[in-house]
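dumping these here so i dont lose them again. two proteins, back to back, each one seq then structure tokens. dont judge the mess
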Amino acid sequence: MPADKVFHLFDRADQLEQTLCQQMNRTLRFRFVLPFFRVVSRLGDGIAWYLLILALPIISPAHGGPIALVMAFAGLTGTLGYRFLKQHLVRERPFINNPVIHCGTPPLDRYSFPSGHTLHATGFTTILLMTLPMVGLTVLPFALCVAASRVILGLHYPTDVLAGALLGVILGLSAVTLAGLA
């Protein structure tokens, strides 16, 4: 494929992503959207996951302790991984690059690729779906809301969220497999 066609393809993909990002961000004009996704985002900072990890031995006395340790290990690994990637890939957040996009809540760091919130949400949910399926299904809607909140609040592009989700699933599958819980 000639270079000009490749450039055009990437330019078109970037335009589509910008449009999708703007459309999702525009939902903030509805009165209930901003407060809802701010709360989801704040809980996705770690609070909800820490509480769940602490509750797992109570929820499942037979298996909760080892699963909680796997989740804690995966959380630490995910944090180190996404921070490394963000520092080296340095993609500015949508609200910085596009003045039309409103920042719905202050970001935890400067760069957007990949989404750490989404990485953790999908990683933890994957671990739970593989080990405690009913608990995993219970947290799945929250994990999906965390992922959506990142674009709606203007903090991430859709590809940041997709990359975070992919990394989270890989991390969750790997953690369960390495721990022998699969």
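---- next one ----
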Amino acid sequence: MRGPPTLPSTTLLAVNVLDASSLLAAFGALGIAAILFAETGLLVGFFLPGDSLLFTAGLLCVPGEHKGPHLVLWQVILCAMLGALAGAQVGYVIGQRGGRPLLERTERRSLRQGAERAEELLAKYGYGKAIVLARFIPVVRTVLNPMAGALGVPVRTFTLWQVLGGVLWTVGVVLAGYALGSTVPSIDTYLLPIIGLVVVVSVIPIALELFRARKAARARAQAGPDKEV
């Protein structure tokens, strides 16, 4: 007598939105577009793993036997670019219509700090360089787009530079993962440590900027209110 039918293992899979491998296994290339759209266009997506998602997707495009889903390189690149470019443009429109109060009302300290850093980047480097650099800094790439809209960055200028930055970021990180996977045999054996390293590297710019901001704040406090640093 047969027992009750067993459910396929895929139905028992719990998707971890913070785990790039889990997201790719569940949603594939289309999931990349959705995740990058949320991370770069919606303020609620600041915690999503954009860098590790792109890098892991590149690894999983390498032909051969490996753990995880098999992805197609051109599909991954296309979906990544579409999600990142559309998300940035939507974020700009949100900032343009909602303005600075939208970012100031948030209770997330990381978002407020990211907004401050985004404004500093725009002031220090100018529109073009700041928009491109922000793509490679987690959290900042989430808030710079609405900040650009709130500060009145011309739409043509923003669109030009966000497209350039978005293409460099998505294509560059995906191809870096693909190149590493093509070079190192049985790369999936080291998948978790590699993803961890990518996450650490992506957080380094934030850590450096926080250190710089705190150092500047201490210097201003020591100089006193009547002196400039």
